[in-house]
Structure formats: C-alpha cells, structure tokens
Design brief:
The protein is mostly helical. The protein has four helices and two strands. A two-stranded parallel ribbon has the order 1-2. Helix 2 crosses helix 3. The protein is globular and about 40 Å long. The termini are far apart.
C-alpha cells in the first residue's frame, strides 16, 4: 500500500486532509475505502487532529438501523 511504501508522504497527506476537515468545523470525515479509513484513523491518533474517519457503509447501516 502507499502507506507502507511512502510512510512520510502518506502521513503528510493524511494530516493535510484531516486538518482541512477540522478547519471546516466537522467532526467526521466520510471515506469509501477501508484502507483510507485505517490510514486516517492512524494519522488522527498520531497528529492529534480530532476528526473521526467513518466508512460510508457504516453510515448506511446506521441509517437502516443495522448497527
């Protein structure tokens, strides 16, 4: 994966994405890729940016009452 091959660049990109979302005042960032969710969760924990990545299918399941 990109994270494995380019950890520094991956962290930098992830931090930028989370910070951009935080600047908009959101608390969650919806993602469609499970690898992206894992990456952004890790970046959030390391960087301290308080954004929760949520997979889109989790939102669908919650909306359908399947949680």
């Amino acid at each position: 994966s990109f994270k494995t091959l380019h950890p520094d660049q991956s962290y930098k990109i992830g931090t930028k994405r989370l910070q951009d979302a935080a600047d908009l005042g959101v608390s969650q960032l919806v993602v469609a890729c499970p690898h992206c969710k894992d990456q952004l969760t890790d970046v959030g924990a390391r960087s301290g940016v308080p954004i929760e990545p949520v997979h889109i299918l989790t939102l669908v399941a919650d909306a359908m009452g399947l949680d």
